[in-house]
């Protein structure tokens, strides 16, 4: 089974505002209200691609019905720890006139000790050898890095494959417990404590940091990389004639696409190609959700993957 863990879930509100301006009254339209969070996005995309998963994490009791309604017809089982405090809300303002978007991220609730222990019990009871588990996103208030490491240790200790999508100190201090890591360029810079923007130098540093363990690196419009020991693959999509709409959830779709490829028996290059196709499909959608797997399949023809 595949599990995703989102300790800091969020309801994503996407608003379209033509010629968005600061210090002004703006009129916009609601594009979508999507119960989400990085791991939830991974589960949702996996479901679209035909793969079952269990979405775990913390959700406010008042928002639970949003997640239940959103995922009721999908291949996603939800197994959340309920909070008395509300789930945070993230707002994305899309300006189609300027082709830019503005992101406003709420910090989220504080997690109490009893809620931390409840999450650990869920993980301990459900995750077993051979499972895959994705830990995605930020760590909320109240959850220490030690608590987070304990959760990863429980999974790696029973023989599950651990995927970690995090940045900064969390990635730097917890990567040793993950079978796969998936930073973007900024998160990789933060974890490696460097301001270098040279991708070759960053990949060399990441190889040293990861030693022989796999890493996936997303680079926005420059595609993505898979590195493992002396192996390196790069994949990118031909965007000619395509109009990007929103980057929200693209990294999550990428990770879901990669796992889908692995589940289907693809090797490194093929799984990376599947990941970029899924991320591109998300890029062409106004939210971190797409209508069907057909779009990913069609975009796969635009993705090239090569070993460097």
Question: Could you report the average pLDDT, rounded to the nearest whole number?
Answer: 92
Count of DSSP E strands? 14
Number of helices: 10
Termini separation comes to: 33 Å
Helical content class: 25-40%
What is the makeup of the main sheet? 6 strands, parallel
Give the H and E element order.
EEEHEHEEEHEHEHEHHEEEHHHE
Q: Give the DSSP E fraction (strand runs of 2 or more residues).
A: 25-35%
**Overall outline:** globular
Number of domains: 1
CATH topology, by name, is UDP-N-acetylmuramoyl-L-alanine:D-glutamate ligase
Given as residue ranges, the uncertain stretches (5+ residues, pLDDT < 50) are none
CATH superfamily: Ribokinase
The helix-and-strand class reads alpha/beta
In the CATH hierarchy, what is the class? Alpha Beta
Supply Rg.
19 Å
State the CATH architecture: 3-Layer(aba) Sandwich
Written overview of the protein:
With 308 residues, the protein is an alpha/beta fold. Helix content is 36%, strand content 27%. The protein contains ten helices and 14 strands. Helix 9 packs across helix 10. The two termini are 33 Å apart. The relative contact order is 0.14.
Question: What does the secondary structure layout of this molecule look like, with pairings?
Answer:
Layout: E1 2-6, E2 10-16, E3 29-36, H1 38-48, E4 53-60, H2 64-71, E5 76-83, E6 88-95, E7 100-105, H3 113-126, E8 132-136, H4 145-157, E9 161-165, H5 168-174, E10 180-181, H6 185-192, H7 199-210, E11 215-218, E12 224-228, E13 231-237, H8 250-263, H9 268-283, H10 293-300, E14 303-307
Parallel strand pairs: 1-4, 1-8, 2-6, 4-5, 8-9, 9-10
Antiparallel strand pairs: 2-3, 6-7, 11-12, 12-13, 13-14
Helix pairs in contact: 1-8, 3-4, 5-6, 6-7, 8-9, 9-10
